[in-house]
Design goal:
Elements lengths: L1 H16 L1 H20 L9 H24 L4 H4 L3 H12 L10 H9 L4 H5 L1 H39 L4 H4 L2 H12 L4 H12 L3 H39 L2 H31 L1
Helix pairs in contact: 2-3, 3-5, 8-10, 8-12, 12-13
Protein name: Cation transporter
Subcellular location: Membrane
Main location: membrane
Length: 276
């Protein structure tokens, strides 16, 4: 009995690692996303029954796929040790909510939207990007805090200086911060904010240009630099785990050098003992 279980487990493991199987799952995920988008058009109401059948088919496929991945593990708890596996399990389980119940149909549709996120769990490059994003959030938080301080200072100055120009833009510090956010995103900031202000205060361009220089150039590039740094570290970690790439080669060379040093040290010790 145990041998039979091991045989089936090996089959499921080979199927899970099969590239064609992975591509099929990715294709079904994309098809599921298109299916959700198709339901938003009024023209598809006459194909409602067909779309429902396709949705059930996609749900059954995802259920079978998650069961195959669970069966491929030596122990079931090994499957749930990976965060992405837990995410996939929750998404697939949530998709089992029936669509024909009028009270649950909205919830079921919302949960089915999250099936698109399974692309992240299936594609390693996307997983690396998401991991880099989450790991960079703490470091980005300090930059965001510094940006908020600059926003607050400039908003206070702007509300004091330019409140008589336009109350809707500079009436209080909250409105001033919203105005500065518009300036930072370059959304019609020149025609809607800069030029009207310069009609009353010709040197107001100094205020805006220094603000843009700090936020759009310095802080934004700091954010990008943090994300790129974390992505580089994640890429190196993946190469080390997979044993491929320059990082893995360098790591292997370092191990070889350490081994050679250890051998030389042992040889020196042996020679010293013989001479002694």
């Amino acid at each position: 009995m145990s041998a039979s279980i091991d045989i089936w487990r090996d089959r499921f493991e080979r199927l899970r690692a099969n590239k064609l199987f992975e591509l099929t799952v990715i294709g079904i995920i994309v098809f599921s996303a298109l299916l959700i988008g198709a339901k938003t058009y009024d023209e598809t109401t006459r194909f409602q029954q067909t779309l429902l059948v396709l949705d059930v088919g996609v749900t059954i496929f995802f259920l079978m796929e998650i069961l195959i991945r669970m069966a491929a593990e030596r122990q079931l708890r090994d499957f749930f040790r990976k965060g992405w596996n837990v995410f996939d399990f929750l998404v697939v389980t949530a998709s089992l909510i029936p669509m024909d119940d009028s009270e649950m149909v909205l919830l079921a549709r919302l949960l089915r939207i999250f099936r698109v996120l399974r692309l992240v769990s299936m594609i390693p490059e996307l997983r690396m990007l998401m991991a880099a994003l989450f790991k960079s959030i703490p470091r980005m938080g300090y930059v965001a805090l510094l940006m908020f301080i600059i926003f607050y200072i400039y908003a206070a100055i702007g509300s004091f200086l330019f409140s008589d120009v336009d109350e809707q833009l500079w009436g209080n510090i909250s409105l001033a911060m919203l105005t500065l956010f518009q300036v930072a995103t370059f959304e019609s900031w020149a025609t809607a904010v800069l030029y009207p202000t310069m009609e009353h205060y010709p040197y107001a361009w100094i205020f805006f240009l220094t603000f843009i220089f700090l936020n759009a150039f310095i802080f934004l590039n700091m954010m990008i630099g943090i994300v790129l740094d974390v992505m580089q570290k994640e890429s190196v970690q993946i190469e080390l785990e997979s044993g491929t790439g320059e990082a893995a080669e360098l790591h292997g060379l370092r191990d070889d050098v350490r081994e050679l040093r250890a051998q030389l040290s042992r040889m020196e010790t042996m020679l010293e003992r013989r001479e002694g």
